[in-house]
Design goal:
heterodimer, A: 271 residues, mainly alpha, 12 helices, 80% helix, globular, B: 267 residues
Chain lengths: 271, 267
């Protein structure tokens, strides 16, 4: 038991060390291109404004929707902005590079490194510019959450729910991107990924039955975004969170399986 | 003239072949974003109208909104599909050097490629229109309105091309130009009426927007198609040409200035 705990500690330390170095490298790189760094911040501000204005505007015209008030909707939007912001910072950039890694054979060098190849492939690029605005969606969430009177349990669960949504969305996207082993160019997959993110930015009750079923059970992006927020609003609705955890576990198994199948198909262009 | 045309015809043929070589990529890259955007909006407006018991929303019924959003899809397919191209890598990695030696300009080459993309976009838009008319979503009231809206959308696609080229030219100065393109698309999406029709905006905001190119990007072509535009085709076309000239001249100037900074990496 003790030996197992020690080896787990070594494992975690090894990966934290790697990630720490990757973080340093990426921050250095981001600061070398200052205009790009500032433009990323500006882009995030515009993105936040466009999402929040669209919702605010819609509510000025319509009134309550699906039993949710304007404040509920804005809390949901900020929850998704917090997930998006973490996604943009820590994951998104790697997806764009994965397609090139396969095409140019750069993946060879990743496979030779003494660390898990999936980890290095999908988590090595960090967009430091996007992290600057990290507190904004959290502060907005605190504001709207206070207005709708979130319970203490909901406040405690909030960070875990954000992480759960992030993990499930990332897992779905990794699963999609692995198709790059079979496609000549997976830039189209990156666009599909972004469309799924767009779908997840609206609560599940906005969608009609068929659409909702597809994006809850087949490509569960609605499960990732709506289930945690439903739980935060009403702790009796915990089933969605359990389904999310189950979906995460199943997708993780599928990723491992397809990654190995993909590697067998990989032609290693650089060697 | 014949020589010039054969050059661009060659580019169009190559681009058509390369676009259709990877069909899944074509579907996901060109049709996917516009279709998903359309489906999200339709679902959203359906639930909004259902919550209001199909009450009128400032003159819009659900059917009218569905018609509006379907025309937005057509206009988006016709206008914005080329905006996903990325030339910043071409500049950074020195790939444009070859174009400086070719008997065709870089902008000219991309205009040829854009024309090829437009052939496919017109076909996609036509399919959407046929489905729209067939299913009764789009009432076939007047072909003149449709022709006016379609012509306007094609003119606007030229404006999008020039804006895309203008923003991409910034790659001579900054590492990545995609941020600027995403930024513009995001702002344009909201302020052009692609999500919420502009006549639902507060009057003061709308008054300000008329001084910008945004209403001409989506709202006006859609309104012309629906036959409910407050602006005549001639006025709208004139304003679009004005914005087009401004964008084209700025793009040209920026490109020429940028070329002086070009280090031809890899040479």
């Amino acid at each position: 038991m003790l030996r197992r705990a020690c080896s787990m500690r070594r494992f975690l330390r090894h990966y934290l060390d790697i990630y720490w170095h990757l973080l340093g490298l990426n921050i250095e790189r981001a600061l070398a291109f200052r205009v790009h760094f500032l433009l990323l911040i500006l882009m995030d501000i515009c993105f936040y404004c466009s999402i929040l204005f669209t919702i605010d505007f819609t509510f000025r015209l319509t009134g309550p929707l699906g039993g949710w008030s304007r404040e509920h909707f804005l809390f949901f939007a900020c929850f998704m902005l917090a997930v998006d912001q973490l996604h943009m910072t820590f994951v998104s950039e790697s997806f764009w590079n994965f397609s090139a890694d396969i095409r140019t054979g750069t993946l060879d060098f990743i496979l030779l490194r003494p660390a898990n190849a999936i980890f290095i492939t999908f988590f090595r690029f960090i967009r430091a510019g996007s992290f600057v605005l990290a507190p904004v969606p959290w502060l907005l969430m605190a504001h709207f959450g206070g207005n709708i009177g979130l319970s203490t349990i909901a406040w405690i669960a909030l960070p875990f729910m954000v992480l759960l949504a992030l993990a499930l969305i990332t897992a779905i996207e990794i699963l999609l991107m692995i198709s790059g082993f079979w496609l000549v160019d997976s830039i189209g997959m990156n666009f599909l990924r972004m469309q799924l993110q767009d779908i997840s930015r609206w609560p599940d009750f906005v969608y009609q039955a068929t659409f909702r079923r597809v994006f809850t059970f087949v490509l569960p992006v609605l499960l990732a975004s709506s289930a945690p927020v439903h739980f935060l609003f009403d702790q009796h609705k915990f089933l969605g969170v359990l389904y999310s955890l189950l979906a995460l576990a199943l997708i993780t198994v599928a990723i491992r399986f397809l990654w190995h199948r993909g590697l067998q198909k990989y032609e290693s262009a650089s060697s | 003239m014949k020589k010039l045309f054969s050059k661009y015809w060659g580019t169009i043929r190559i681009e058509l072949a390369s676009q259709l070589a990877y069909k899944l990529n074509f579907l996901l890259l060109i049709l996917g974003p516009a279709l998903v955007f359309f489906l999200i909006k339709i679902n959203l407006w359906y639930s909004i109208f259902a919550a209001r018991d199909n009450e009128l929303l400032r003159g819009y019924t659900f059917e009218r909104m569905l018609e509006y959003q379907t025309y937005v899809l057509v206009v988006t397919l016709l206008c914005q599909s080329y905006a996903s191209r990325n030339i910043s890598e071409d500049i950074r990695f020195g790939r444009i050097s070859a174009f400086l030696l070719y008997p065709t300009s870089f902008m000219g080459y991309h205009f040829g490629a854009f024309s090829a993309a437009q052939i496919l976009n017109c076909l996609s838009a036509l399919i959407v229109l046929v489905i729209g008319f067939g299913s009764g979503i789009l009432p076939l009231e007047s072909l003149t309105h449709l022709a006016a809206g379609g012509s306007m959308a094609l003119l606007v696609s030229l404006l999008w091309f020039c804006v895309w080229f203008l923003l991409s030219s910034s790659s001579f100065w900054i590492e990545e130009s995609w941020v600027l393109r995403v930024l513009f698309t995001m702002v344009a999406r909201f302020l052009s009426g692609a999500i919420i029709p502009l006549d639902l905006f507060p009057p003061k905001v709308l008054e300000f927007l008329w001084y910008t190119p945004f209403p001409y990007l989506t709202f006006i072509p859609v309104q012309l198609c629906m036959g409910s535009s407050s602006v005549t085709f001639h006025d709208a076309a004139l304003m679009t040409v004005l914005w087009l000239l401004i964008a084209a001249i700025t793009a040209r100037v920026l490109w020429s200035k940028g070329l002086r900074l070009y280090a031809a990496a890899g040479m």
